[in-house]
Amino acid sequence: MWEYAPAPESRDIANLKPNYRMFIDGQFVEGAGDPLKTVNPGTEEVLAEVSTAGQADVDKAVKAARRAYERVWGRMPGAERAKYIFRIARLIQERARELAVLESLDNGKPIKESRDVDVPTAAAHFFYHAGWADKLGYAGYGPDPRPLGVVGQVIPWNFPLLMAAWKIAPALATGNTVVIKPAETTPLTALVLAEIIQQADLPPGVVNILAGAGDVGAAVVSHPDVDKVAFTGSTEVGKIIQRQLAGTGRRLTLELGGKAANIVFDDAPLDQAVEGIVNGIFFNQGHVCCAGSRLLVQESVADELLEKLHVRVSTLRVGDPLDKNTDVGAINSREQLTKIQELVESGDAEGAERWTSACPLPDKGFYFAPTVFSNVSQAMRIAREEIFGPVLSVLTFRTPDEAVAKANNTPYGLSAGIWTEKGSRILWAAQKMRAGVVWANTFNRFDPTAPFGGYQESGFGREGGRTGLEAYLDV
C-alpha cells in the first residue's frame, strides 16, 4: 500500500514561551492562583507554565471591563469600534501560521484543521462582526439597540481560538466589554490572542483574559457586576450556571453538548455520504458538540454503506498532530481518553458490534483509533451519551417517519444531517428534526453569517449571524 512520507510542520513557528500570563486592563499580569502546566496531548510533554487567576484577579478584570465600558467602549461610535475589530481580524491572518501550530501543540488537533478551519474561521468572525458594528440600528431590533455592559464568557477546549472569536467578536461589535476564561487544558492561543488585542491598540479593559480551572470560570459567571454570561461546554455545567443565574435578571446563553443524528436515506449518493459521515464524526477527533455521532441508515443500503465506511475509515492516518498528513490527532487529555474508553467498553458490554481501524498508534500521547459500532440499539449508552471522541454508533431504520423518531429520541438538539437526492425529503425531514442546525448532503459546515445553537439539553440562544447579535443587545 502506498504510504505518505512524514511532513511535519516546525513547532518553532509557534514561538512557544516557557511562561504565559493573564491579560487584565490591557496588561499581562501574574495571577494569584496556582500556576498550571499545559501539556501537549500528542507527546505528553509540558509545553508551558500559565499564570492563573484568583478571586481578586476576577474582581480586577470585571472592574477594568466596567470602567472601559462606561468611559470608552460603550460610548464609542460603531464605525470606530469596527476599526479595532477589523484590525484584530487582520492580525489573526498575519499570525495565522503561528496560531495554527500553537493550537495543534496545545490542543492535539491535526495541523491541517488548525490551519484550514480554526484560524481562518476565527478571523472571519472578527471580519464579519466588524461589519455589523455601525449597522446595529438596521439589524431589525428597533431603532436604538444598546449594549448590555460587561460580558462574562467561558469557553471549552475543543476549539480554543475559534470559540474565543465566536464569543469576543459579537460582544465587541455590539459595544460590550469582555472577561473571558479559556479552558484549563488549552489556554495558549487565547493568551496569544491577548497579544494581538494589545497589538491592535484596543483600549485597556475592553477584553480581559483569565486562565485557570473551573473555579475561575465559576467566579466569572457568578460575579455580581457581570451583566451577561455566555458559556460553551458540558450540559452538566450549563445546568449549574442556569440555576445560579435564575432570578438575577442577568442574560444567559448556553451552547452545550449534543448527540447528533446523521440520517442516510436509500437514495443518497453513498460515496458522498461516507465522506460526510467521516467528516461528521472524526473531524477534530470527534471533539465537536455537533458531531454526527449517531448514524441512522435505511435498512436497504445499510450493509453497503457500512462496508464502504469501513474501507474509508481504515485509510485515516492517526498520529502526530503537526504532521500535515495526519487525519486524526491526539485526544485532548488523559481524562477525556479515559471517558472515551469507558463508554466504548460499555458498548461492548451491551452487545454492540465494534469495528476499530487497524491503524498504528504512537507510543506516547493520548490517542484513540477511529471506531464504528453497528447493531446499536437506542437504549445503549453509546447511542444516548455524548462520547466526545472518534466513535460512531450506527442504527438502522425502515421508513422516513422512523428515522425522524429515532433522530429526535435524545435529550439533546444541537445539530443533524440528512443525506438524500430528494429536495422535498430534505425539507420535510428538516422541519421535523428538533435540532438547531440541520445540514443537507454535507456536515460540519460553519459560517459566521449563519446562527448556531441548540434546543433542550444542547442549550439556548444563538451565536453568529444577525440572530447572534441579539444576545448581546438590550432590545
From TrEMBL:
Active-site annotation: 255
Keywords from the UniProt entry: Oxidoreductase
Pfam families found in the cross-reference section: Aldedh (PF00171)
Keyword Transmembrane helix: no
An example molecular function term from Gene Ontology annotations: oxidoreductase activity, acting on the aldehyde or oxo group of donors, NAD or NADP as acceptor
Top-rank taxon: Bacteria
Annotated InterPro entries: Ald_DH/histidinol_DH, Ald_DH_C, Ald_DH_CS_GLU, Ald_DH_N, Aldehyde_DH_dom
Domain (Aldehyde dehydrogenase): residue spans on this chain: 28-474
Protein family (similarity comment): Belongs to the aldehyde dehydrogenase family.
Protein name as catalogued: Aldehyde dehydrogenase (NAD+)
Protein's organism: Saccharothrix carnea
